What does this fold into?
Amino acid sequence: MTDRLPSDYEILLITALIASLPLARQAGFVNLRTSTSTVSYTEPAAVQAWADAYAEAMLQSNFAEKASEYGLATRSDLAGISTAWRSWCRDADAFFCFSQTEVVAWKQ
It folds into this structure.
């Protein structure tokens, strides 16, 4: 394979918390190139915004519904996690970061 993309190739770009390499291969993509990047927030307002979003998700979201439905967590467990997010973000040393996985692949 060369560094230059032939015009008759399709390019697949997947950006997600977790990339599904087997799914890309099953769909016929080849020569998968995987990388990651990290995003971090250290400003208190940004940390609080992310914590508030996750705290709310623990209470009212598809995630919360499915966690309860599948028996992974009770509503009480989720309420406790929500409270922990809101408490954690008030810590002076709190910072929020996450990684993203990117996959570039070619399909002939």
Observations:
- The first strand starts at residue 10 and ends at 16.
